[in-house]
Amino acid sequence: ATPTAVMVGTGLGASHGVLIKGGQSLENTHKVNCVVFDKTGTVNAKLLKTMEPQQFYELIAATEVNSEHPLAKAIVEHAKTFWEEGDKSIWPEARDFVSVPGHGVKAMVRDREILIGNKSLMLQHNMNIPEDAENILAQAEKMAQTGILVSFDREVTGVLAISDPLKPGVREVISILKSMKVMSIMVTGDNLGTAESIAKEVGIGTIIAEANPEQKAEKVKDLQALGYTVAMVGDGINDSPALAVADVGMAIGAGTDIAIEAADIVLMKSNLEDVITAIDLSRKTFFRIR
Ligand code: ADP
Ligand code: MG
Fold first, then answer.
1. DSSP letters spanning the chain
2. pLDDT at residue 289 is higher than 50
3. For residue range 72-115, what is the model confidence (pLDDT) as tens digits?
4. pLDDT (tens digit, 9 = 90+) per residue, 19-44?
5. Residue 28: CB within 6 Å of ligand 1?
6. Ligand 1 within 6 A of CB of 105
């Protein structure tokens, strides 16, 4: 394609909210024949077991407000609903906040150690998972929800079930990609049960579950070694290694700054349909003028 065609293509992308960083990104996109989706999306948290809700939510919101993870944002939003307008943004201070990518977060709030995350985060800290918590987790998985454990001072005190209402249209996006001879794969740090129910819902046949950020990147490399030109779609810090190694990294615009930085293309409208827009635009630019 001529430089002019590339400029036109990039400009057209921008007008559709598809931010393409440079001509090379646009060019690579027309060769994409495999899209790896992070299981992305959010929200509405449900508290299934707890102490006094305000006390519980204050501690977890104070912790999660330091995390950029979409799940964290969902949890903080949900916590806010327990306060009257006006005083809801006042969380106690969290000290020693640590994020454990792919597993959860940790901090000290009101002199209590707060851990929020998946089972392996709790196991890493030598905790027992009580049977009722296990049951709630299993139930959440069946309903395609992400079950998150909360512990205070190394004792599991709550489980949050966060459902990930898939944006309408994801199923269609997958099927259109298929018709464009582009394979779709899902990778996620989430457990296999949740991943499977979601994959089934959207029509994705291949899933990689319980993958940490490095394993997500490894998976992309495996696909490349098989000869695929891979686009990775993700939104979190945990996705940035995979976004960086992919032939085309596509960040969801509502995602974290680090993901947006690591990407070649930013989907500003946070709309998965725009994966198609990007591939289409690139194909038009590079097939037309060769
Ligand atoms: P995904 O691939 O679904 O985006 P991640 O790799 O980001 O998942 O995280 C994997 C799991 O780690 C999540 O399903 C969740 O259980 C836990 N986790 C990660 N970050 C957080 C957080 N900020 N708060 C609570 N749990 C978290
Ligand atoms: Mg994610």
1. --HHHHHHHHHHHHHTTEEE-SHHHHHHHTT--EEEEE------EEE-S-SSHHHHHHHHHHHHTT---HHHHHHHHHHHTTS-TTSTT-PPPEEEEEEETTTEEEEEETTEEEEEE-HHHHHHTT----HHHHHHHHHHHHTTEEEEEEEETTEEEEEEEEE--PPTTHHHHHHHHHHTT-EEEEE-SS-HHHHHHHHHHHT--EEE-S--HHHHHHHHHHHHHTT--EEEEE-SGGGHHHHHHSSEEEEETTS-HHHHHH-SEEETT--THHHHHHHHHHHHHHHHT-
2. no
3. 887 887 787 677 655 656 799 999 999 999 999 999 999 999 99
4. 999 899 999 999 999 999 887 544 44
5. no
6. yes
How many A from CA of 255 to the centre of ligand 2? 9
CA distance linking residue 18 with residue 16, whole number of Å: 5
pTM exceeds 0.90 for this model = no
pLDDT of residue 20: 95
The burial of 177, by beta-carbon neighbours within 10 Å (0-12 exposed, 13-18 middle, 19 or more buried), is given as: buried
Listed in sequence order, the residues at least 6 apart from 175 whose beta carbon sits closer than 8 Å to its beta carbon are 203
- Bridge partners, 117 (sequence order): 104, 149
pLDDT in tens, 44-63: 445 555 577 788 889 999 99
* Known catalytic membership, residue 38: yes
